[in-house]
Amino acid sequence: MRGLAKIYARCVLGAVPPSSAEHLHVATWNIAAVNNNPFEYWITHPSTAYAALMEAVEQFLNKPGDCDVPVRDVFTPAMFAELRELMADCDWPGIERIEQIWEEDWAARPIVAGFMKDKQLGEKRLASMPDRITNSINTANGVANRPTVISCYRESMRSMDEWWAAWKRFMFEARLPIPDNKGQVSKKLPRELLKKLSRSKYPALTEEEEALSLPLQMLCQAIFDAILVHIVNSVSPGGEWMRIKRQLVDGLFRGKLDRQLSILEWSYPDCHVVCLQEAAAAFIPLVTSRLGDRYLVIAPASLSSSDQNSLILLDRGLFKEASVVDHTDAVIAHFTAPADDTRPILQFCANPRAASAPPVASGDLLAVGVERVDGRRFLIASFHGDTNGLATIPVLDAVHRQQQVMPRHELVFGLDANTYAAGSESRQGVQGFVDAVATCDLSTCFSNPADHKRNTTFVARTFLQPQLQKAVKRSALLDDPPNKQVDRNPKDFIVFSGGITKLSEDAVRDNTGRRAFVEDMIFPTLDFPSDHAVLSARLGCHTSVPTKLL
């Protein structure tokens, strides 16, 4: 397989230069892609039917007109009565009060203006929190999906009765084998996974709503899911939406890991170092099985509880397996700094307080020392930043400090920095990051990293997801200046130290899986199941090798 991949690279991607003492081909890629909702983000889809469906949903929610019927016309009184009895059997408090709230308030609300677009419901997390918990449940037998438009549930929902029967069975009858963090499996109903909401975390909640938050979440989730089924069947009465959904599920979820491995295998067979971010634990044995003859696959000693791990792949023919040493804990130790620490790099933090405590979770950061067969030594790191990028500069500082205590090691650092074209106190700007890199006497894989042509994401939410305040109209995806809800930013980088230079002008961005980047194309796509581009760069190692290392 490795030989076939090499032949493909030469014929389709161009000649692959042979490995040499001076040559190092590096790639970095955040592979996570979309969350559990196949409709959550706009994608580039080959069929016009996808765009037609999403625009029809958008129109329904933005200009419902006479379609903005009362909730009771969609989630009927009979359905509520059945749900009430099921909740009463759960020994949850205040079921009589829930019935009063239903009859006096929620039942009469318009489905769009009074429910789907009620900002208070969103701020209270009454629909989005139970959706997060029950949308896709990891069990000992695989993933179990709640019957809803916005999960990977693939069975028919062409009628409300069909959906409602499946929804009740799932939430109240399906005992799922769910492992805990120690690997112990116990049978649980999905409704047992719901947690009380706290006013301290969600202050929009009243004291009464906090006390009643379990049945309120259940009722809100049932109404929300019913409205979604009603909307998609209204705008796609022939069931075309289900065919599109199954296609999205197969392309973005069920086939995601295989497609990502195929991209690495066929489009990047000549890479010597591959840094990956947000890899699920299930990806590790798969990449080891598929690419283990080509690469040393290095994973964090402690995997992420959120199933988002940084990995490093090292060319077996170029690096000595026995020389690999994990320095992650040593890097993390550099986060601890005196209160009067005046390190110049931290002035570039959007929020310098992010450096006051270790800003990374288990699995986010991986740093290893390794020796090449020619005696050159490297500190290689892979990192996934927090959503707003506030941890990125403190981590850069810590990695740089570790390299300084390993003076014979050159640094190669692939990272999803989560930087933004326009920074703020709550978001790390790309210019601040680039300035911090320069302060460390490091370089990036771009000649002008802050230029908009270096964007590595183009992501926006649709109207088929619980947080409608974050949805972007299809017509606004390419607005200039960009819509504030569109994530089109320079987020991914390869950073390296002074003994390394670029052999080409800039890194190659790839949002197709074929070492090509299409400007103005939103992604993921069915062929490229990630919301971050791949970056690859050819680097030159020009430092001399100490005699004692030869």
How would you portray this structure in words?
The protein has 550 residues and is an alpha+beta fold. The chain is 32% helix and 16% strand. The chain has 16 helices and 17 strands. It has helices at residues 2-13, 48-62, 77-88, 95-104, 111-116, 119-124, 128-134, 160-172, 207-211, 213-235, 240-254, 256-267, 283-291, 328-333, 392-404, 430-439, and strands spanning 23-30, 136-139, 142-145, 176-179, 185-188, 273-279, 295-298, 309-315, 325-326, 365-371, 377-384, 409-416, 443-444, 492-496, 500-502, 508-510, 534-541. The strands form 4 sheets. Strands 1, 6, 7, 8, 15, 16 and 17 form a 7-stranded mixed β-sheet that branches. Strand 4 (176-179) and strand 5 form a beta hairpin. Helix 3 packs antiparallel against helix 4, helix 8 (160-172) packs antiparallel against helix 10 and helix 11 (240-254) crosses helix 12 (256-267). The two termini are 33 Å apart.
The radius of gyration over CA amounts to: 25 Å
Number of β-strand runs: 17
Given the structure, what is the number of helices? 16
Oligomerization state of this entry? single chain
Query: Approximately how much helix is present in the residues?
Result: 25-40%
Mean pLDDT: 89
**What sort of overall outline do the alpha carbons produce when their principal axes are compared?**
elongated
Which structural class best describes the helix and strand composition?
alpha+beta
Largest sheet: 7 strands, mixed
Give the N-to-C terminal Cα separation. 33 Å
Low-confidence stretches: 6-21, 545-550
Q: Strand-residue fraction?
A: 15-25%
